[in-house]
Amino acid sequence: MKHILITGSTDGIGKLAALKLAKDGHHIYLHGRNAEKLTLVTSELKNASNNSNISGFVADFSDLDAVQQLATQIINEVPQLDILINNAGVFNSPVAKTKDGFDIRFVVNYFAPYLLTNQLLPLLEQQNSPRIINLSSAAQSTISFEALKGKTEIDTRAAYAQSKLAITMWSFYLAKKYPEICVIPVNPGSLLNTNMVREAFGRFWSSADKGGDIIYDLAVGEKHRSKNGNYFDNDQGAYGQAHADAYDEGLISQLIQETEEIL
């Protein structure tokens, strides 16, 4: 039985993956930003999976102080962590900038998982064959470091695509720095039938199950155990190539340096 934390798991593909993993008998830690919704989903998944080992944590990922508090709470309350799935993400938002002046897409999609993961690494390192699954996207574009730092504004799509390249580049960095942890960035599939996609594009191409199924498979599938530092492209249904910048050591070290300064 694995202990698995899935961020952004009160709906969409995170929730679907949580249900599949719970049905296998794993200990699941859900996360959401709304306490009421989290309570409802926790009891719904307990009933649907016949697994009582499901609990949840509340944190708003657009607030990095809340992410830090979440990390502290997890360290204090979770006895072990085998798998971390950084699934929480945002595309459209009524608020473009956080209270700290950063684009909300960079914060929720990249800074928050970066901060949370780095705090939880000691928990992961204690386990045999731990894994980190980071949710990327087919949409990846070259990062404007001025936009990353909140010094210049870019549009929603650009910020989303840049935040997804950032989490991919950081995934490759993590994979090299912690070879004993299997780190896999994944494009779960383009235009899946989720609230986020419908709000952003008003249409979808594939069932949300396509995304939930690949997260489940990457988290516990034996064949992925040796794929540390590889990018899974679920539009192709196979490992593939991320954006060219994700393989540029100079850009990766600049990204990590800028991120550390911001955080």
Q: Briefly note the CATH topology name.
A: Rossmann fold
Largest sheet: 8 strands, mixed
**Total helical segments:** 9
Provide the structure class.
alpha/beta
CATH superfamily: NAD(P)-binding Rossmann-like Domain
Number of structural domains: 1
Which CATH C-level class is it? Alpha Beta
How large a portion of the residues is in β-strands, by DSSP E? 5-15%
The H/E string reads: EHEHEHEHEHHEHHEEH
What is the molecular shape?
globular
Key phrases:
263 residues, Rossmann fold, 8-stranded mixed β-sheet
What is this entry, summarized?
This protein has 263 residues and is of the alpha/beta class. It has 9 helices and 8 strands. The longest helix is centred in the middle third of the chain and has 22 residues, at 104-125.
Written overview of the protein:
- With 263 residues, the protein is α/β, with parallel strands linked by helices.
- The chain is 46% helix and 14% strand.
- It has a single domain (3-262), classed as Rossmann fold, CATH 3.40.50.720.
- The chain has nine helices and eight strands.
- Strands 3-2-1-4-5-6-7-8 form an eight-stranded mixed beta sheet, with helices on both faces.
- The longest helix has 22 residues, at 104-125.
- The chain is globular.
- The mean pLDDT is 95.
What is the secondary structure topology, with strand pairs?
Blueprint (H helix, E strand, L loop, with lengths): L2 E4 L5 H12 L3 E6 L2 H15 L4 E5 L5 H14 L5 E4 L17 H22 L5 E5 L9 H4 L7 H22 L4 E6 L7 H7 L7 H12 L10 E3 L4 E3 L8 H14 L1
Parallel strand pairs: 1-2, 1-4, 2-3, 4-5, 5-6, 6-7
Antiparallel strand pairs: 7-8
